[in-house]
């Protein structure tokens, strides 16, 4: 896993966006209205809260930015030099320092303005101080426009850097441009690096991964390096130089002997000598590439001597390879991994920690005391049990018994034979099962099987009786006539008890449900609600229905009287309304007609309903117009001292 993950850094907003975020958040998260009845202490707290909240928001945002960006003095030297090459260390530190200074200035402004608001004597002065505080804070943020824009570009570039671990097992490839580094990386890893027949196709570091001996290896493809002084090298070349300088790895220096890369062998050897100090304490392999176009054996002797001289000078390995035919690709990878593993083991052995480990290890090499050959000893009992030709009886093993009795998962050996107890006959005794400190065997009835059989027989007999009753037949039984008569009497008595329980259950409840009482009944189709039908049903159940029928007749008479009274009242009202309409003038009649249409438009067809609706509207307004808080707009008419204090402008002064 990578040590540094720059992809999780949060975006850096621009200065205008930063100001909008802070002010909008302050407006949303703090109260916005001062009511006329507030005391001056509450007004001061109102404005101090806004200043403090704005300062906290700015401080949190700037702290997040400063924390996300890495400190060059605390990270690995490889990343520190890489940031210096790509972004300029001084410019990077200056931008972060300016944001840190801006955070301190905002905190100081908030402290000063809050101290002044505490002694303000009017709402106008509190508001002026609040506006001054927020304005000064926003001015500080506006001055950070260049720093915020620069840091956002740095963040975008950092997020595109490869996830590289400087401390893991690494294979690094270097050399002049277009010598076959990217092609080799595509062969041994899954990294799809762009390969083109021209120089500087690779402009940054590319990271791939491969496996060797069940270990994960990190493979780094670097941009091409040209043979000139360090001061003349550009940013692309410096990335390869930084990787060579700071990573503990196995280095593959590629040399194109076909010279199709555009550089001669002399130039490639000259570059090797110029960067030779960077190969110190690293496992170096000189890879002669593109032997499919120019074989190593047929190379010009002078050029071959130049390459061999480099190998002798640095004491490194020389290998030939071709990416097109894949000749020597796996051998180069294996040799690079083996050399790095060996160097890592040697580094650990030569370290200080190995002494403490070696002191705890003791290795003994026994010396023979005589010339007698002492081979493996097999007891005679084992020989007799396993060998039939030695006169013993063959004893079947557990494996043989397993295959004879169904195979694995079906048969398992009885391990009780191997128990070592005081008495051998105890080995196959049942092991008691203890639950909650009690033996389960104490609660097992020895005659449970017999009782279970009796219950099953009784259950079969009951099932036969039920089937016989369904078919209308009498079940076969062993009872005589007298016993059958007793059984019949018992069943009749049981039916009577069932009916009486139903009668007693409905004694204190209405016979007809409440939901069915008020329903309209058709006298031509009475159905089950006819008096004669109800009386006959109740008599069968043993219930006296005379009182119930009389109560129903009484309710019917009263209902008929109510209908007659209401019909008469409606008739009189309609006559009175007609007389009143005749006495009204044309103008009054039009007004009355217009009022009725307005009432009907709102779904209120009577004056009484209209009055009730207006009353409910007044009651509803009283609920939200009564108590005042920071979120409503209720206004008072009286004026207090602070409203007439300080500078006034044209317009209303009851809302600030």
Task: Tell me briefly what this model is.
The chain is α/β, with parallel strands linked by helices and 656 residues long. It has 21 helices and eight strands.
What does this structure look like?
Belongs to the TRAFAC class OBG-HflX-like GTPase superfamily. OBG GTPase family. NOG subfamily. Involved in the biogenesis of the 60S ribosomal subunit. This is Nucleolar GTP-binding protein 1. One of its GO terms (cellular component) is nucleolus. Residues 505-633 are annotated as: Disordered. The protein is α/β, with parallel strands linked by helices and 656 residues long. Among the domains are: 15-160, Four Helix Bundle (Hemerythrin (Met), subunit A), CATH 1.20.120.1190; 170-350, P-loop containing nucleotide triphosphate hydrolases (Rossmann fold). 52% of the residues lie in helices and 6% in strands. It has 21 helices and 8 strands. Strands 2-3-1-4-5-6 form a 6-stranded mixed β-sheet, sandwiched between helices. It has a two-stranded antiparallel sheet with strand order 7-8. Strand 5, helix 10 and strand 6 (317-320) form a beta-alpha-beta unit. Helix 3 packs across helix 4 (89-117) and helix 3 runs antiparallel to helix 8. The two termini are 57 Å apart.
């Amino acid at each position: 896993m990578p040590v540094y993950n720059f992809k999780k850094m949060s975006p850096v907003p621009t200065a205008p966006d930063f100001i909008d975020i802070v002010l909008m958040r302050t407006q949303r998260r703090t109260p916005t209205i001062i009511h006329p009845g507030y005391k001056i202490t509450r007004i001061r707290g109102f404005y101090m809260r806004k200043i403090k909240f704005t300062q906290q928001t700015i401080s949190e945002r700037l702290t997040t930015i400063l924390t996300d960006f890495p400190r060059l003095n605390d990270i690995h030297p490889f990343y520190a030099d890489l940031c210096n090459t790509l972004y300029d260390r001084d410019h990077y530190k200056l931008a972060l320092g300016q944001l840190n200074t801006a955070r301190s200035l905002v905190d100081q402004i908030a402290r000063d303005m809050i101290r002044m608001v505490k002694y303000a004597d009017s709402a106008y002065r509190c508001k002026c101080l609040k506006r001054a505080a927020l304005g000064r804070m926003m001015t500080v943020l506006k001055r950070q426009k260049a720093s915020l824009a620069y840091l956002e570009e740095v963040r975008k570039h950092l997020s595109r850097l490869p996830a590289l671990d400087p401390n893991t097992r690494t294979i690094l490839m270097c050399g002049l441009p277009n010598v076959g580094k990217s092609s080799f990386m595509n062969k041994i890893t899954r990294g799809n690096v762009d390969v083109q027949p021209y120089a500087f196709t690779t402009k940054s570091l590319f990271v791939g991964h491969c496996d060797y001996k069940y270990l994960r290896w990190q493979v780094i493809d670097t941009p091409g390096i040209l043979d000139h002084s360090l001061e003349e090298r550009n940013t692309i070349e410096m990335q390869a130089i930084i990787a060579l300088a700071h990573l503990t790895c196995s280095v593959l220096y590629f040399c194109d002997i076909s010279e199709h890369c555009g550089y001669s062998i002399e130039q490639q050897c000259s570059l090797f000598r110029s960067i030779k100090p960077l190969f110190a304490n690293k496992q170096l392999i000189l890879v002669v590439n593109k032997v499919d176009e120019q074989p190593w054996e047929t190379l010009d002797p002078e050029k071959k001597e130049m390459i061999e001289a480099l190998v002798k000078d640095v004491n490194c390995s020389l290998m030939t390879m071709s990416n097109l035919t894949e000749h020597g690709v796996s051998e180069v990878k294996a040799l690079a991994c083996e050399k790095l593993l060996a160097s890592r083991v040697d580094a650990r052995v030569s370290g200080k920690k190995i002494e403490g480990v070696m002191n705890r290890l003791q290795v003994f090499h026994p010396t023979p005391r005589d010339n007698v050959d002492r081979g493996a000893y097999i007891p005679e009992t084992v020989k007799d049990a396993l060998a039939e030709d030695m006169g013993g009886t063959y004893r079947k093993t557990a494996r043989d018994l397993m295959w004879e009795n169904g195979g694995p998962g079906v048969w398992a050996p009885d391990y009780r034979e191997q128990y070592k107890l005081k008495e051998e006959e105890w080995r196959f005794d049942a092991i008691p099962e203890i639950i909650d400190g009690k033996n389960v065997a104490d609660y097992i009835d020895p005659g449970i099987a017999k009782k279970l059989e009796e219950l099953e027989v009784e259950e079969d007999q009951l099932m036969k009786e039920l089937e016989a009753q369904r078919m209308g037949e009498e079940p076969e039984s062993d009872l005589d006539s007298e016993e059958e008569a007793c059984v019949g009497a018992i069943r009749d008595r049981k039916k009577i008890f069932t009916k009486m329980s139903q009668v007693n259950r409905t004694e204190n409840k209405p016979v007809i449900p409440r939901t069915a009482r008020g329903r309209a009944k058709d006298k031509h189709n009475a159905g089950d609600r006819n008096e004669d039908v109800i009386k006959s049903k109740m008599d069968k159940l043993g219930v006296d229905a005379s009182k119930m029928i009389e109560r129903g007749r009484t309710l019917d008479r009263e209902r008929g009287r109510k209908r007659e009274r209401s019909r008469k009242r409606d008739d009189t009202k309609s006559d009175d309304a007609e007389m009143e309409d005749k006495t009204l003038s044309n103008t009054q009649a039009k007004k009355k007609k217009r009022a009725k249409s307005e009432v009907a438009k709102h779904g209120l067809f009577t004056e009484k309903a209209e009055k009730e609706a207006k009353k409910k509207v007044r009651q509803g307004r009283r609920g939200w117009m009564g108590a005042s808080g920071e979120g409503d707009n209720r206004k008072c008419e009286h004026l207090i001292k602070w409203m007439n204090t300080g500078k006034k402008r044209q317009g209303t002064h009851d809302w600030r």
